[in-house]
Amino acid sequence: MSWALLSLASPLLAALLALMIRHGADRIVLGATLISLIAAVLALASINGEQPVSLNLGGWEQPLAIRLELGHLSALLMILTGTLHLLVGLYNRVSDHGTSSRSDYWPLSALMHAVLLALWLSRDLFNWFVTLELLSLAAVAMVTLSGPKAYAAALHYLMLSLMASLFYLLGIALLYGQEGVLDINQLAQQLTDTPITRLSLLLMTLGLMMKAALWPLYLWLPDAHANAPTAVSALLSSLVVKGPVFILWMILWHLAPAPFAEQLGLVLALFGGVALLAGAWSAMTTPYLKTLVAYSTVAQLGYVLIALGLSLRWQALELATALWLFIIAHALAKVSAFLAAGEMQGTYGRKELTVVKGATLTMPVAMFAFAIAGGSLIGLPPSGGFLAKWILLQPMFTSPAHWPWAFTILAGTLASAAYVFRVVSLSFDQPDITPGSLTQNLPAQWLSLLPALLVWGLALLSHPLLLWLSRGAVV
Amino acid sequence: MNFLQQAMPLLVVLSSLIPGLIIFTLREDQRALRTFLNLAGVSVQLVLVALMLLGVSRGFSFKLQLPFIPNADLILRADALSLQFVTLSSVLWLATTLYAIGYLKGSAQHSRFFGYFSLCVSTTVGLALAGNLITFLLFYELLTLTTFPLLVHRGTREALKAGKIYLAYTLTGGTLLLLGIVVLHSLAGSPEFMTNGYLQAFQDDHRLTLTLAFALLIAGLGVKAALFPLHGWLPRAMVAPAPVSALLHAVAVVKAGAFGIIRVVHDVYGISLAHTLNLMSPLLWLAAFTIIFGSVMALRQNEIKKRLAYSTVSQVSYITLGVALLGPIAAIGGLVHLVHQGLMKVTLFFCAGIFAETLHVHRIQDMNGIGRRMPLTMAAFTVGALGMMGLPPIAGFVTKWYLGMGALEMGQPWVLLILVGSGILNALYFLPLIYRGWFGLAPERWPEDTGLGGGIPGWRETHWMLLAPTLFTALASILVGVLAGTPISPLAWTHFIVNPEFGL
Amino acid sequence: MTGFFWLGIIVLPLLSALLLLDAGKRWRPLIWLAPLPALGLAWFPLEVLRVDFLWPGARWGVEDDLARNWLGFTALLWLGAGLYAWQNHKDDPHAPRFQAFWLLTLTGNLLLLIALDGISFYVGFTLMSISAYGLIIHKGGPGPIQAGRLYVQLAILGEMLIYAALMLRIQEAEGSLLLSDWQQSPISPLTASLLLVGFGIKAGFFPLHIWLPLAHPAAPPAASAVLSGAMIKAGILGLWRFLPEADANLANWSPWLIALGLVSAFYGVALGLLQTRVKTALAYSSISQIGYLLVILGLALGTVHDVSPWPAALALFGVHHGLAKGALFMGAGLAMTVKLPRSAWVLMTLPALALAGLPLTGGAIAKTALKTGVYDSDLTMLITLLSLGSLTTTLLVIRIMVLMRQANEAIANHNRMPRAYWCSWGLLSLTPLLLPWLWPVFIDNRSKALAADALWDQMSPILLAFILYGIVSRLMAGKTLPDPGLGLSRWISLRLKKGLQPAKPATSPPAEPARALPPLGTRWQKQTDSVTLASALLAALLLLLIGWLV
What we know:
heterotrimer; A: about 475 residues; mainly alpha; 2 strands; C: about 550 residues; about 0% strand
């Protein structure tokens, strides 16, 4: 547990330091991120056996204390957060199109890192509210980093985020009024199925859905993600939207009464199915490269919704494994896709999709990164996306009544293939420009490739990963 | 030895993967290094394959197992069937690499091309060596990805369109295959392929599921095997450069589908189960229809490569037909056609590529008198075409012999009618080409004579790197037919594959 | 191990194709000697060779007299024709192409003769049929091309039918490939009909003869000689080998085959008489003669007990007709190129009259053997028909000779005939006289034919025919009759061609201008809308879900 605390503390400290010492903020933050990542790995290693470790902050007893809990899932998510922050930070430093070493990016990203770690470790409704708020604020602030053109998008993001927070807060208030506790374990033990419970859960669900940009409440996402600086887009799509999903999963799985969970699960899964197709359709038709990637996030979250909804509907815990696998795989792939897309957009100097024409010749590494990240988004074996889909599909053949879900997922697969290959096939076209005329930044391109390789490498790790996730999903 | 036995299958895959990855990083002008890497890769692979052939015929097993998904490990292993396909791939890879080096001289983007080319071979080899369905799926999908860049290599609008159609078909196929595999996996896990399959235990309680899964698998595999009505991508895919078409039609893609069908029928369901569930008659009819359909469509084409493409649709279904007949002799016919069709079709595509590159002859009516300008190429073309008709002593006849016998053995004499009809149709669409080539009146001047290799009829009629592989494969198609009875022929090896399946 | 010589006679022609690469052309004439070893092996047949490396069960060799005789005459004919072709194609720029096809055809022809298993036979048969296409259309021009097209169309059709029959036959023989086993295995009517049509196309008896009158005249003389002399016999040999002997079911087919043979024999003559071109008339004569071979085959099939006379009759007829017809085709070629001296005309008459069964020639012995066989069977009424056949055949050969003379009179080339022609055509023309004294099977069977009463029997129809021809030609002087046969062949050929041509390329419609899909998302992306819309959605969802879930 002490490793986890170290992991949490170091980016927090770095954020404060970077605010004060602007010169060299990049190095401070990157160093802290590295320390945090190592600590997170050690934290995972320190979990013996299957039981999660709890810690009450400040030494108080429950129900007063703020409880942190380190399980396999939390530890994995911490590692994921650390890895991606490190990669994106490095990219931002290396790339010609990143923000400067003195910019606000560094303290904000460190703050976001710390907040996310806190979110993964918390097990208490109010704590989560606080982390969510901080997360949203950090995210909005980071969207504005790309200058005035992003202000409008950031503003909408902020407004909707606040609205979502209100819903969530309302839900907590109702629940607290009824039960008097906020710790999720205690709530789970004493919560009864009353209309108040249902209403509060519903409010929280909707609030979180808005924050996570789950269909149909995703409307803020494409603009915000597409207009943010590349590094920020990557972080927003890969990590920030996953925070609320984590909370959503926790409260619904632990708190929702079974009949309610089953009904809500169906709704969520249906939304997921629609999200898959609608998101893909928008991605297929948008004329802009980064918007395409942003819409792909909407579509991919459809898988998450389906996994979440069906695990509730069928009370199938194994689907939670699929859920988290999706989240991990999507995070890695999306970072790669955004970095590659951003790098290409920056290098070619235009944001239309058509810039990738001939990119396999002019910017092969970045294009390759995009393509194989796309492969994972489609779910081609042996990528992480495939693993997740495989596990998700497994229970769908236990009875014929479940088959339509399988076909929905397959339709989603094909839809995602359609938008990924929309880009890829364009990249094989004859280029309009000569390769020599570009000033390329190869290290940045290779950095964008790295997460995509990681997600394809998940196959090699699949065994321990699945083991940890199946344990982690319980808590 | 034990370690080596484990490492062998992986090494075979890596022997083309690693050169491929290195080639990606090369600059355009590092031609010598690229050629060296290509040839070194293929040589190493050939040696490894030869070793494994020797080993397997002596009863050794080569297997590598890595944990992947619960109940579904990644398994790479070499059995008789997989080695048949691996050998074909590596031998034709050698020929095609040489050809491609000659073919692409003077065009750009070599590193990309040869990189993907090598990747394509390593996925094909991996697919052949896959030891269970999940591993097979993995390489099946990867094959789609590695062939796509080759297909659209020219980057023309037509190529891109063909590429998109190709993807639409194959990715849908891959998805259906995935679905089928998941169905079987939820029933029985994904154990290793085994002779006579591993699903017998479920034949009483899960008939419907098994049938559904079979339909899904065949639909998924049928896309690549170009079974009617899933063949639509194949004729369009001929816009690819000739070496790619050759590889696509002879080894990589269509064969992957056919090979998968063989695997599913023999080693997943097993002969007896396929019989019990009566899964084969629809497949048989479908294959028979595809054979005739492909030939009829071929007859309607005016472009050489298009005609060849439809001919592939027809010919690959011979393999399916042989498997679907469910008899030992027919199975031999089908399996051996895997090799025979590969050799003959690769020859034909090589020749079509030579005509196009050397003289810019693309259409059939432009072939008049080409035999006088390029006698050796035309001779190779003739061998391939006659073999396609199934005329002895070329390889195609051996196939037809075994298929015909197999059909009679299984009491399906109507299949003979299909074979005869297909032979006649093949003659109808190949003979005019041969006729024009040898006896047509050569035009005053060719559409565009590039003068490759010197432009002198004979050994210097085109670049030697184009000519040598073509003659090699043409000769091979005769030799495997003439020497079918020797223990080193594909036919003998096929006997070795098939006999255990039928308990012979 | 001496059996490997059999391999040699097959491989040798293929190897000698390498001489084509000899740019100096010095060694190329050796190519024409390729059939020589085969002739040697026909003389001294060696042990059977097991060629299992080709396919299990492959056997090459000669096991009976029929094969030996036919191998002998085939090799002899190919050798003679080769010599002729050497001279004939000396100045032909496309000679290498001709030689290549020549060698391939020869290989096929030899292989089918020495095949003891069905597959080998089929391989040889196919090789021969397909390669002969190259010989037929060698001269180029519309005539040969049309002829070649019809030939190859029918040849491929025949191949496929035989392929089907082959499969069925292997099945019927329980997997055995050996022709000797096939002769003992019963046959189904389907298989028999497939064989009859498949081989019949090659043999060219009525009504499967349509390609023949077009193809044989179209080829260069040497090629016509082997086509008519050796190759069409392969069809009859195929039937003989593939059909079982003494099969009760098949015995029912016997009358029909005999009838077909006789129709063919008379039809050939009838149409041959109408011809105005020598080689076409010769081709019809081949149709007529192949009818007799079919009659023998039919008689053999009808004989359930003792089939022994028939192989001998087949051997006699085959050898005699093969050599005589070869000589005639070459002679016809000569008659159209060089002014022939008188001595040549004497030589030319020999094979012609031998076809009609002139006493003391091989033809007489062959016909007598046939008649003797008929006497021993129950079909004595055939005798009359056979005598009538001799008469009509004579009519046809007279007609042929007349046509030849007419053709030769138009020739202005007074050069001396090259020696190679004398050696090839001249020697072959002499064979009808030599056969009864030199060729073993003729020696064995000559006793009856050389009897005094038999001589008159043989002579009378010939004399009658001369008288008849004299009368008719007087009556018909200056008139020509329409020829129904060739027109039909040409019509079929054209129909086949038209029906099979690929569709003309459709002019592709102009490519549609790329239509950019209007981005569906635009409306949703409108900045001003998104907050309101999202809030509205949120509220709506809340209400909906509260209504349903809470």
